[in-house]
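User: Can you fold this complex?
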Amino acid sequence: MIVANRKSLEEILTMLKPYKKVLLLGCNECVTVCAAGGEREVGVLASELRLARSKEGQEIEIKEQTLERQCDHEYIDQVRPFVGDYEVILSMACGAGIQYVAEKYRSKPVLPAVNTSFLGVTLEQGVWSERCQGCGTCILDQTGGICPIARCAKSLLNGPCGGSSNGKCEVDKELDCGWQLIIDRLKELGQLDRYEEIIPVKDWTTSRDGGPRKRVREDLRL
Amino acid sequence: MILRAFESGVDGVYLAGCLEGECHFLRGNLRAKKRVQYVKGLLDEVGLGAGRLEMYNMSSAQGQRFAEVAREMTEKIRTLGPSLVKKVKGKK
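Assistant: Here's the predicted assembly.
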């Protein structure tokens, strides 16, 4: 899922300085799983904001609402009946959700309460790790199910660099060398011969490098 | 829940959990300990001070310890003084 982490309280308070009536929107999907912007985090942030403002002798009114998702307009529409009562929307969804809310409620400033980082997985409760860069041309079949774009610091396509040492990457000794992982996995699968297949120069046009992307399925359009 | 208590204007909160290793719910007191640490961090962030929240471990058979802890925490909060938060309004 998309992994994000909440901005510091200081940063959020600075963004909220001009405002007294805030609609705080959480999201029930990815940011709930990575404990950044779900219902619980909405409750905690709302409490923190009220405490901080009260300490300064200032008031703040916060409506707490957690939507199923903020990337589908049917869910964002649910706040339409009362959005007019608030001066600003503070969203704890990922960057996609925050922007979609901003698109739907053009007369309201929409502020980000989280920093969205990567597509990843839950290794254990409290630990999330990057796995996918959304490059648009998946080659996981050739690399034993391990992605060299996301898991190699240099996104190399044909084996490790000279900085790979004891299975670790030169940029961080805690970081596994992506290519060591691939080689080990291909061995396990009995597919080490695939390692010798040259993966050609990558076509990055399917990635963000080709510009912001859009996908259309004509067969699904009403 | 702890934050709501501070929003209502309380000056201090303490949790009493079972002795470590003797939790009726096995690891409930260890989870609580972690959560208390987290909320202490939030209280520092907000400017109220982590010292207003503490966790103590004791057996429900230790009446004297309970009283001792109550006295200790009361003294501690008295030294810290009242919370700067007036009862928070505007909660929806």
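The helical segments of chain B are 2-7, 28-46, 63-80. Chain B has a mean pLDDT of 88.
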